[in-house]
Write a structure and sequence with these properties.
48% strand; mainly beta; 6-stranded mixed sheet; globular
Length: 115
Amino acid sequence: QVQVVESGGGLVQPGGSLRLSCAASGITFSTLDMAWFRQAPGKVRERVAWITRDGIMTNYAVTVQGRFTISRSNAQNTMYLQMNNLRPEDTALYHCNTWDQSWDWGQGTQVTVSS
């Protein structure tokens, strides 16, 4: 059974940084293309960053391009999202999942950007 734990969220001022982590167990993590998603109140969930199973290729939503960096450690079954220059519009509940959202959603980690 797949278990996913997202962590690293919090309250940060505009322009600040956070690093999110996604720890997965119960699966062969290295065989999966992975992604970070977010959902703000009243909005649909969106994919913000994607990384191939080998970590070589990444892709980003236009809204986060140049500010967010996705990475992974297959040895540790963990994926990361480094978020810099955060903006109030980045406020959302962040989740990790496979690229095609094949897992049940975990609890996520809340990111709030506010002064």
